[in-house]
Structures are given as structure tokens and as C-alpha cells.
Amino acid sequence: MAAQILKTPIEYLKGVGPQKGEVLKKELGIFTYGDLLQHYPFRYIDRTRFYKIKELNGDLPAIQVIGRVIAKEIIGEKRGRRLVAQIKDDTGILELVWFQSIAWIDKNLKPGSAYIVFGKPSVFNSRISISHPEMELYGSQENKQGNVTLQPVYSSTEKLKQFFLDTRGLQRIQSSLLDLVLKEVDETLPLYILQKHELVGRTEALLDIHFPSNAKALQNAITRLKFEELFYIQLKLLKNKLLRTQKYKGLVFDKVGDKFNTFY
Prior knowledge:
- Helix content is 38%, strand content 20%.
- The chain is α+β, with helices and mostly antiparallel strands.
- The protein folds into 3 domains: 71 residues, DNA polymerase, domain 1; 96 residues, CATH 2.40.50.140; 57 residues.
- A hairpin with a 4-residue loop joins β3 and β4.
- α8 packs across α9.
- The chain is elongated and about 90 Å long.
- About 2% of the residues have low confidence.
């Protein structure tokens, strides 16, 4: 069952559809459920840590702050058109900038509301700003993720982001996929190997590689999936060696003469 469902074209997944399916194929080579399942995060972010605005600088990686929107405006013309907003906490003011999807963001960004803002700080004209940040209403259900503290970050592109398939969008469809296929995933390693090497099951590993509850669960998932990959590479090498020795047995000397070593 698992093998069949993982061959399902990606456009049939809830939240994808034909348009997003096409861009996933072109940008990331994701054609099926199985391809998406193996599109692993390339890093993780500790979403339990919040910075104050005064702590931000251009050398920091992607971070998150909590602030209230105090102003927003659309400025510029044509290619220079952008939406600029300001959020404030008890230590300062941070500028947020969007150059794409301006109308949609302007419609949904609520002045006076508090947001969790996530993105990479940069310095421009001696001011700290974040371009195209991810935004969540503070206290919304979306940022109450149980005991998941490490947020996965997936490879994306500017084209994907135009279809709302940034890392947050990829998280959503990955979550939908796991809900659908996780119970159908087959174990690929025998029990005695799992026990001997203290490996977690494949179902647990796939869940924790995408949405780890803690650092230990993530490390267990990585160890299991790496072991599985190397195990099957080794099996393939041994199989090829066996087939080669059976098919090409070579010339067998029943007796080695005196000149054999001299020749070589």
C-alpha cells in the first residue's frame, strides 16, 4: 500500500493542485508523494528563542521577534513598489519590507495586532530591517505546535514563494502528506538490525526528520535514515560483486609456475 500511495502525483495532495504541482516539479524535482516525503529539511530553527529588537544586527541568522504593527504603507512605483511596515516591542522599532504579493499582504496585515515575525535581519541606511518575513498572529493556533520546538527549514526558490511555497508553505503540505501516508509506511530494515544498532523505526524517523519534538529525536531520525541509505548502498555493491564474480569467473590456475611472480 505504501509503495503505491507514494507514487501518487504530487498535484493530488491536499493544498497543492495543478499549478503548485507544476512549479514543484520544475523547481525542486518533486513529482510524487514519495519525492516530497524525501525532501528533507536542510536545517532547523529553535523557535523557543525570541529576540528583542535592540538585540538585532546584520550578522544574525534568521531569528524571530514579537512586536505590534504600528504603521504600514505602500511606497514607490512599478518595479520599485514595496510595502513597508513597522513593528514595535519594548526595546525599539523594526522595519519590515515586501516587494512581492504586496496587495495580499497589505490586506491581511492588521495594524495594532501583535505578530511573531521570523526572518533574516539586514542593515540598510544604518537601520535594521527584514525583507519578506514570515508573519503569524501572536497567540494564533498556527504557532501552538504542541511540543515541537525545532522548526524545519526547506529548500525553496523565489518562484515557489510566489505560489506561497516558502518554507512555511512546504511545512504545511509536508504535514498534510505525513497525516496521509505515515501509517502506510513500510519498515525496510529487519527487527534484529534495528535492535542491534538501537535504531528507531522508519515511521518514527520520517516524522522526526520533518517535525522533531527535540534535538535527541532529530538525531535518532538522522542516524536511522543515514544507516538505511548506507546499508542499501552496501547491499547493492555486494550484489554487483557477486553477479560479477558469477558471470566473469576469470581464468583459474590450478598450478602457479616459477615465472608467475617474476611476470607480475
